[in-house]
Design goal:
- This protein is α/β, with parallel strands linked by helices and about 180 residues long.
- The protein has a single domain, classed as Rossmann fold (3-Layer(aba) Sandwich), CATH 3.40.50.700.
- It contains seven helices and seven strands.
- The strands form two sheets. It has a five-stranded parallel sheet with strand order 2-1-3-5-7. Strands 4-6 form a two-stranded antiparallel sheet.
- It binds iron/sulfur cluster (SF4).
- Iron/sulfur cluster binds next to helix 1 and helix 4.
């Protein structure tokens, strides 16, 4: 079987979903028998390469995330929303009930941890936050979702193993096997 190309990406999330991916522990050896990891947060490639499977953690919070996600979609055969932030916005979407200006004002000026000189940073290298945070499926077609905050390592491994063996994951069946 030809090795597949696996990519993992971290958009607006806390990295907890990637921590859970690492919790598959020695089963990573089963994954790398079937796939080359062509992109992940510790692989220093600037461009997102062609991928058979892209695991995307986090929601779309900024213009940069939006452009990155559109690019990832073009390059990926199967795009998976990894974790509740990617699926529903979850924690990152909590700011959606406020305006962006209110969020900045609170974070950089009013918060008790700031001194009286606090001001909103505007360095060009900073992400350009969008008015509202949105989940992946609002921007691109998502082929598969792995819910959870974070999703369990067992579930992540199950989905990866199925796809890498050219099978379609069935999370309902996986739950039944686990919990009856
Ligand atoms: S789903 Fe939970 S663990 Fe994953 S990025 Fe969001 S907050 Fe972090």
């Amino acid at each position: 079987m030809t090795k597949k190309k696996l990519a993992t990406v971290w958009l607006g999330g806390c990295s907890g979903c990637h921590m859970s991916l690492l919790d598959i522990d020695e089963r990573i050896l089963d994954v790398i028998k079937l796939a080359d990891i062509v992109k992940c947060p510790i692989v220093d490639t600037k461009e997102f390469p062609e991928a058979d499977i892209a695991l995307v953690e986090g929601s779309v919070t900024s213009d940069e995330h939006l452009h990155e996600l559109l690019h990832i979609r073009k390059k990926s055969r199967v795009l998976i929303a990894l974790g509740d932030c990617a699926v529903t916005t979850n924690v990152t979407g909590m700011r959606n009930c406020l305006t962006k200006e209110e969020v900045f004002n609170y974070a950089y000026i009013q918060a008790a941890s700031n001194d009286k000189e606090g001001k909103t940073p505007d360095h060009p290298a900073l992400l350009k936050l969008r008015d509202k945070v949105v989940p992946l499926q609002e921007v691109v077609k998502v082929d598969f979702s792995i819910p959870g905050c974070p999703p369990s390592a067992d579930t992540i491994f199950y989905v990866l193993a199925e796809l890498l063996n050219d099978r379609i994951p069935n999370l309902a069946q996986e739950r039944k096997l686990k919990y009856g």
